[in-house]
Design brief:
Blueprint: E1 5-11, H1 13-27, H2 32-51, H3 56-88, E2 95-102, E3 106-111, E4 119-122, E5 128-132, E6 135-139, E7 145-149, H4 157-168, E8 172-174
Parallel strand pairs: 5-8
Antiparallel strand pairs: 1-2, 2-3, 3-4, 5-6, 6-7
Helix pairs in contact: 1-3, 2-3
């Protein structure tokens, strides 16, 4: 196994969108509240209809529109923002964004888009790593992740994952089936 693994990350729109969905819905589980909200309002609409009272149909209709409409707006807004971010960053078919160096001490990231000093994170500070189809998501803290797409490192993808998993232990999870 190499002492230092370097990945010059070229991020494309598909990888960015896949990561955004993973982070929002699978990791942070932000789908739960809108779905629960919809289920509660649909249940109230059903109860209103079962009462058989005058205006029950109108109340049920309002509850259904709100209960289903707001979650749809929530999810629609999320996907729209992800599309806009990908467009603003001009990811299209791919763009060099940063270089990640993995070594014994930790992770060093250099911005390839603008001149900034490299940032280093110790392995002990790293939050989590997830291996998914086509990429590794390396969370250096709760809100900051670096994507390591397959085929972009100077070693095979399995070796990149083994290196990360070796340093992170239980905090590294493979989502491959």
């Amino acid at each position: 196994m190499k002492g230092t693994i370097t990945t010059k990350v070229r991020l494309d729109e598909k990888t960015f969108k896949r990561f955004s969905r993973f982070d929002m819905f699978r990791l942070r589980k932000r789908w739960r509240r809108p779905v629960l909200f919809a289920l509660i309002l649909v249940a109230f609409a059903a109860v209103a209809l079962l009462t058989g009272k005058a205006q029950a149909g109108m109340i049920a209709a309002v509850l259904l529109v709100i209960g289903l409409g707001l979650p749809l707006v929530y999810f629609g807004t999320f996907f729209s923002q992800v599309n806009m971010q990908a467009e603003q960053r001009k990811l299209g078919n791919g763009r060099a964004v940063y270089t990640v160096k993995l070594d014994f001490d930790g992770v060093t990231v250099t911005n390839d888009q603008k001149a900034e000093p490299p940032v280093t994170f110790k392995w002990s500070e790293a939050q989590a790593a997830f291996r998914v189809k086509g990429c590794v998501y390396l969370y250096v803290n709760a809100v900051r992740a670096f994507l390591l797409p397959d085929g972009q490192a100077d070693v095979p993808d399995d070796e990149v994952w083994a290196y990360i998993a070796g340093h992170m232990g239980d905090k590294a999870k493979s989502m491959l089936k």
